[in-house]
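Page 47, continued from p. 46.
Same chain as before, 238 aa.
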Amino acid sequence: MFFRQNLILVGAFCSLMAYGMAQPEKPAEKEKAPAKPALKMVAPGVLELDHIVLDTTKKEVRFKAVVNQITQLIEYAIVHKDGKTHESLLRTEISPFRLQTLLLLANANKYLEKLPEFDAEGREQPPATPPPKHRIQIYVKDLRPDLNDPKPIPLANWIQNADTGKLMQGEPWMYTGSRIYEGDFVAELEGDIVAVYLTPNAMFNSWVPGNNNDELWIPTPKVVPPVDSPVEVILKLP
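Result:
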C-alpha cells in the first residue's frame, strides 16, 4: 500500500514538473540548464528532492540553512541565498519551487484567503487568525560540530520584538504558498521562503500581531548562533 501511495506521489510530482514554470529564453551563448533533479525514495516513507527531505510518516520537511545575520532588523526568517539576505535571519540554497513541490505532495493546506493590501499608512493589515490546518510549526537545529546533538527549538525563539524585548509568539507561522505571476512562481524568483513581515510573495508568513511592521523584529541577542553557523530547518505539518 505504501509503495502504491508513493507511486501516486511520484506521478503527481512528474505532472507538476511537466507543467513547470514559465522560463525566459536563455541567450544562445549560455550553457544549457542542468537536468531537473529526480525525486527519490531514500527510506520507507521518506522522499528526497534536491537536498530537501519529506518524511511522510512524521509529516516533516527538512532542509539545511545557515545563520545569515544577527544584529539588524529582519523582515524574513528564511530566504534563498540570492534573495533579500540583507533583511533575513537565515539563508538557504534550496529551491523554493522544489520545496513547494514536496509540500504539495504532503497535502499541505495553503491559506487561500487573499492577503490584505496596504492600508493608508503604507502597512499591510494582518489577515484573520488562520485555522489550525493552515498553521505550521517551524523548528531549527544548530548543527555546529562542537555541540552535543542539540534538540530542535522553535524558530520563533530566535526572533525578538525590538520594542519589548520579548520573543515572538510561539508557532506564529501559516502556509501561504506564495503566488504565480505571469506564469512564474514568485517565491522562486524572489527567494522569499519564511516572512516575518507580511508578504504574499513568501511561502510562509507570520500571522501574529506585529506582522505588518517592518521595523519591529530582530534576531534574539546572545541566542542566535554566529553568522554562517549551519542549521537544519524542520517544517512540521499539522
